[in-house]
């Protein structure tokens, strides 16, 4: 699931984009000001950013300069400004694409897909390896001792999330709301069931998923 951050001061536009992208299995976050945008980017590590130019406290072009100091994340600029000069300057600053408001949501989706594909081609495949367990986060293939392990989508998302942050303790609520994207009910046994299934499927490496009684689960290096 790709992770998109929207930096836009119009909440209605944020919600409109978010609702549309979530239909296509994107995880979407937004912030309404540029003031905390850098902090949110570092916190979320988004796969792509949708950036409005006209932000309070900091301009979009200044934000692009700051982003490019530490990240190559694809940035799609959306703005009511349509002058060719503005587009050229923004592309030179490091923006990857430009869309003029008002825009069609399906066109935005197509541009997101194109930029993500280009970005993934340029990025080496990230492989998480622990003992005989290997998780390829690009192909979404999990192997144990070179044997491909067949996982459901949710099982894969669980093991990838845990393995990306080894030794970090995740509560059941953290895991459920991150992956299922809906509020967690205390009597919900879904996480326990999925963890149990994962441990069995991962064979000897399944013991890396540790139960921290009263707190949740962690993945041991």
TrEMBL record:
Question: 4-aspartylphosphate (modified residue): where?
Answer: 52
One Pfam entry for this protein is Trans_reg_C
Domain OmpR/PhoB-type, chain residue ranges per copy? 125-221
The record's listing under InterPro entries reads: CheY-like_superfamily (IPR011006), OmpR/PhoB-type_DNA-bd (IPR001867), Sig_transdc_resp-reg_receiver (IPR001789), WalR-like (IPR039420), WH-like_DNA-bd_sf (IPR036388)
Query: Which GO biological process categories is it annotated with?
Result: regulation of DNA-templated transcription
Every copy of the Response regulatory domain together lies at: 3-116
Q: Which GO terms describe its cellular component?
A: cytosol; protein-DNA complex
Residues annotated as DNA-binding region?
125-221
Provide the function of this protein. Answer: May play the central regulatory role in sporulation. It may be an element of the effector pathway responsible for the activation of sporulation genes in response to nutritional stress. Spo0A may act in concert with spo0H (a sigma factor) to control the expression of some genes that are critical to the sporulation process.
Q: Which PANTHER family match?
A: REGULATOR OF RPOS, RESPONSE REGULATOR SAER
Q: What is this protein called?
A: Stage 0 sporulation protein A homolog
């Amino acid at each position: 699931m790709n992770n998109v951050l929207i930096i836009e001061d119009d909440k209605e536009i944020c919600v409109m984009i978010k609702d549309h992208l979530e239909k296509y299995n994107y995880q979407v976050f937004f912030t309404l000001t540029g003031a905390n945008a850098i902090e949110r980017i570092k916190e979320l590590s988004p796969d792509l950013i949708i950036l409005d130019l006209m932000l309070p406290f900091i301009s979009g072009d200044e934000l692009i300069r700051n982003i490019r100091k530490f990240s190559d994340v694809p940035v799609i600029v959306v703005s009511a400004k349509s002058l060719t000069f503005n587009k050229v300057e923004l592309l030179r600053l490091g923006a990857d694409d430009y869309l003029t408001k008002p825009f069609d949501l399906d066109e935005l989706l197509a541009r997101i897909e194109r930029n993500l594909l280009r970005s993934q081609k340029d990025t080496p495949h990230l492989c998480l390896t622990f003992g005989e367990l290997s998780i390829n986060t690009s192909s979404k293939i999990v192997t144990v001792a070179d044997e491909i392990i067949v996982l459901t989508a949710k099982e894969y998302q669980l093991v990838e999330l845990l393995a990306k942050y080894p030794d970090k303790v995740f509560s059941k609520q953290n895991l459920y709301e991150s992956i299922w994207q809906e509020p967690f009910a205390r009597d919900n046994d879904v996480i326990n069931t999925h963890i149990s299934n994962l441990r069995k499927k991962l064979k000897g490496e399944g013991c890396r998923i540790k139960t921290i009684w009263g707190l949740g689960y962690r993945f041991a290096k």
